Description:
2 copies of one chain form a homodimer. By secondary structure, chain A is mostly helical. Chain A is about 50% helix and about 5% strand. The first copy, chain A, has helices at about 5-20, 30-35, 40-50, 75-85, 115-135, 135-145, 150-160, and strands at about 25, 55-60, 65-70, 165. In chain A, the strands form 2 sheets. Chain A has a two-stranded antiparallel sheet with strand order 1-4. In chain A, strands 2-3 form a two-stranded antiparallel ribbon. In chain A, α1 crosses α6. Chain A is elongated, with a radius of gyration of 21 Å. Chain A starts with 5 loop residues before the first helix and ends with a strand. At the A-B interface, α1, α2, α4, α5 and α6 of A face α1, α2, α4, α5 and α6 of B.
Amino acid sequence: MRRLSEGVEHALHCVTLLGSLPDGALLPARAMAEFHGISETYLLKQLQALAGAGVVVSVSGPRGGYRLAKPAGETTFLDVLTAIDGPGPSFRCTEIRQRGPGAEADPCAYKAPCMIRRRMLQAEKAWRDSLADFTVADVIAEYRADAHPSLKASAREWLAPKIRMADA
Amino acid sequence: MRRLSEGVEHALHCVTLLGSLPDGALLPARAMAEFHGISETYLLKQLQALAGAGVVVSVSGPRGGYRLAKPAGETTFLDVLTAIDGPGPSFRCTEIRQRGPGAEADPCAYKAPCMIRRRMLQAEKAWRDSLADFTVADVIAEYRADAHPSLKASAREWLAPKIRMADA
DNA sequence: GGAGTGATACTCGGATATCTGGTGTCCGAGTTTTCGCGG
DNA sequence: CCGCGAAAACTCGGACACCAGATATCCGAGTATCACTCC
């Protein structure tokens, strides 16, 4: 498969970050960009796509920011990938078997689907199924179990002043 | 995942075509391009990659052309994909977790691999495993069983004069 | 002192440049065939 | 008629333009905050 967009990595890390915050907490894009050392303006583009796909929700104005739209346990890697790279399949069959000398044949002779297309989509389904099994909560749990304690503490400390709690 | 290269489709169809020829038969790139109604010069680029990866072998000069390097039953979709799109993984972890405020932390704190990277590579492995299960022979067998008889006959007839048999 | 009101500051959202990599093309290297010439 | 040799034709191989999509950026819309004024 072609090289995967770098925005996917940004989106996955940011979604994981959002999922590790307390319930109802908001985090602005600037904080996420600084935390990961990436471009803020470009990250906005990805967050915009995530918001449009219903993975995160955005709140405008001061005290605004982003938060997960659903609990971390219900947000899968596939949701994020679909939001960033689009819902369509990566392999697109252009039916080249029908071009060239085969073009004059009866169109109904091509009733059967292209075998190659079928196989490629089947492989892609395996990939999607695997991604659908991974939730953001899984990554967070693994992080909390394995990450170095001082690392977790410093991250928590750095993030604390940037977090905005909902009015609730 | 990003849109898959269109050359992949060309390569897969051409490899299938080569696999359906009699043993030792050669077919020039021009014939394959005309058969599929695609650009000959661009197809050469893909065939070059396939030859470099050892999927097909090329023979120069008149009466030259391409043939499969291994039997169709041992040539998998994964071989073709790897040859065209490169062997590297599609998801590349740039370790953004180590940038930003986490940069000052002890490097040994990052001994554990990035969880997100691990999951993405795992999903990619599922995709590769699925592709490795599909051989060119499978597609050909399915084609011979399901394709319209007149279609098979016309293709055979069109290809016949372009096929070059090895000296054997 | 409290409420209203306007300005302000901060946030996200969409439209706009730039640049890498896929797409498409060209000319050169190599090999077999073939035609011509000489024996 | 047969053998030799040079030229030609056809093939693949690598290097060169072109273009779409990802990357990176900027300006505009919306909203809560804050300060100031008035009651």
